Amino acid sequence: MEATKRQKAKLDDKSTKDDYKCGACLKVVHDQDNGVMCEICNNWYHCKCQGITEQLYQILNQYGAELHWFCKGCQMGANKLLALLTRMQTKVDKLEEEITRTRSDIRAQMNTNFQQLTADLDKLCHRCDENDKKVDEYKSEMNITENTKTMLESQTISNKCELQEMQKKITRS
Fold it and tell me: Which end of the chain is more exposed for a tag (fewer CB within 10 A), N or C?
């Protein structure tokens, strides 16, 4: 891993000897030295300046694509960043749980409200049907009353006529 990064750095036209100075001791990290480059600050370090054992150095070279290495200074910042990200992820997880719970509560409340509204609507429909029946009954009663009135008026007129006829007969006699 580190050899590959060193080769890429050498290919860069702007690279100078200062690019390979150890970020800790400020001495040049030579090709023959065991050195690693921090993936955050891009500074080179002697393995001994960062306390990297030969075994760890070999592992970093062998599995460089899968492993990341940070110098001690950047590691502290990375640790803080990771801790912050962990706290943020915990908060995001809690918020997602709360959103899921809130959605569930809202759905349950909506179902309850819908059922209540359906029941209320059924009651109103039933009351409307009852009122329609009463209106029909009242109309029927009004027709009977109208018919009775008309009949009574007709009878009254007939009775008046008869009375007048009788009065005429009485007056003639």
Answer: C
How high is the pLDDT of residue 171? Answer: 82
What does the alpha-carbon distance between residue 69 and residue 58 come to, in Å, rounded to a whole number? 13
- As a whole number of angstroms, the distance between CA 23 and CA 27 comes to 8
pTM of the model: 0.46
Query: What is the rounded distance in angstroms from the CA atom of residue 51 to the CA atom of residue 59?
Result: 14
Q: Could you read off the pLDDT of 101-119 as tens digits, one per residue?
A: 999 999 999 999 999 999 9
Give me the torsion for CA of 111, 113, 115, 118, rounded to 10°: -130
Per-residue DSSP letter, 64: T
Q: Specify the 3-state DSSP secondary structure of 46.
A: strand
Q: Which homologous superfamily does the CATH classification assign to the domain defined by 2-70?
A: Zinc/RING finger domain, C3HC4 (zinc finger) (3.30.40.10)
Write down the domain spans for the chain. 2-70
Write down the residue that tokens 């050498």 correspond to: 10
Q: What amino acid occupies position 105?
A: D
